Give the backbone structure.
Amino acid sequence: MSSYAEFYRRSIEDRDGFWREQAALIDWQTPPQTICDYSKPPFVKWFAGGTTNLCHNAVDRHVATRGDQPALIAISTETDTEQVYTFRQLQAEVQRMAAALLSLGVGKGDRVLIYMPMIAEAAFAMLACARIGAIHSVVFGGFASGSLASRIEDAEPKVIVSADAGSRGGKAVAYKPLLDEAIRLSKHKPPAVLLADRGLVPMDLVAGRDHLWAALREQHLNAQVPCEWVDATHTSYTLYTSGTTGKPKGVQRDTGGYAVALAASMKHIFDGRAGETYFSTSDIGWVVGHSYIIYGPLIAGMATIMYEGLPTRPDGGIWWQLVEKYKVTVMFSAPTAVRVLKKQDPAFLSKYDLSSLRALFLAGEPLDEPTAQWISGSLGKPIIDNYWQTETGWPILTICNGVEKAPSKFGSPGKAVYGYNVKLLDDQTGEELTSANQKGVLAIEGPLPPGCLQTVWRDDARYVNTYWSSVPNKMVYSTFDWAIRDEDGYYFILGRTDDVINVAGHRLGTREIEEAIASHPNIAEVAVVGVADQLKGQVAMAFAVLKDASPLEDPQALLKLEGEVMKIVDGSLGAVARPARVRFVSLLPKTRSGKLLRRAVQAVCEGRDPGDLTTMEDPAALQQIRDLVKV
Ligand code: AMP
């Protein structure tokens, strides 16, 4: 048996022994009493009885041994700034932020919503919450007021931490008006808002509610705020993600299990070592940003780069320039970003000294073979695809090079990661598919390993009903992805089983986009599908039925309507969710029982055979779409 196969086997068969060893990778105030309590499936408690703190593990414990080494490197090519914080300086900033939050009434278990661009203050805020046992809920800065409002309502934060603006392509993007609008829309009104003023866009402050970070920081310059020791099972954060139904789900994460899972992944998967530099190009609004911009690298004692800006500005060599300058050893990005870089001058890749880099990890969407081949050939370093989800917090499938160097296969993220009892199941019968190359639902048998979601925030029933009840006859966790496994145990992901689409690595629920579009006064009905796209992997395409159909004859009126609909999506969800096109039809393809035939619409848009259409009410509906996408 290979050393990885043995490592994996032990993680499943001697679960407690395996994770007891991994638990030693972090600091505990009180050691765990039990390793895994799975007495109430599918709910699992990892490391119960133990007390620890994420901020202590990410920051404080490194101050004694590497206090003067870089911890956070905040770079913005938008504002042309570079700030390096050592572990000691980071500890001081986090204490100031923690003191500011405490002064605004935040206590253990209270929620703090963070709506921030990629600036150092966002990291301070996350770590400060962890420090005092508050629960952070980071909302991606690219989301607009509608998305933000629903998250404020669900999380009910005591404080929102935000900023005057983000910046993209050199243009300031105001956050404060979106935030004010979101608070106006939300039933829950946060008592306080803490704002970093970057001087990009003037802000109107609401007296008594809005506070400036610079002023509070000044008041707490010498703050000493000790880490609050919390139970391993204490909620560290919630992070909202899209699913089949319109309302986003608050993925709820614990503290001890998460810290152990990240520490172990830094060792066994990323092979990142203390004192080195990690560069993840993601955003703190996504799970990769939580696990591998903030917590994972810092827990491992690595410096982490937080980058605000485009991969192509000032030119397509900027990321490689940073790799050279900061001697990055581990880099993490998404296939979409690589596809963008592929369009740039290849000379950028040979211009810089990339000898420090050991591997480039890619995740978030399928890594197509041409992209993988290109980057692998150009970089001359291992390219490691890894497959996971917001829910799991760390990779489910990959190549664990820290355990055993193994070859990868193009198009496959690799094998099941230790701790995950991965199964392929028949979606109709729930039966396990054990032969090679059979297509099934990728599922995980309980208990989920440490680091995965505990439940859906304030909705245990939704957690069980969504994730653990979708495969017939079996209580297993469904990833909602189709996959096959080859004879060597390598998995290949074949797409989602639900109505979730993946645009440039951003996960979006088609229902959410449909709801936003349907709020236009002249839209009666709409279907949104994900359509394959060369650059972004997928784009959203909308087909709408009008209440007043008269514009259907007038191309100018339709263009105007399309613009209006896109504006609504931008304003409600944000430009990330904007459909590539909104087309207008007189009816949508449905079954006789009234179910929208999204798969058929998607197939037609991609020029594929829509399959069995015998249940379709009126074939003319699909024909209209076929005619529209042909032109
Ligand atoms: P998110 O929760 O936003 O990270 O999205 C998770 C979903 O993205 C998964 O369920 C997959 O559909 C897709 N995904 C993530 N990583 C990969 C990968 N390496 N290969 C293929 N699909 C992926």
Summary: The longest helix spans residues 555-572. The radius of gyration is 24 Å.
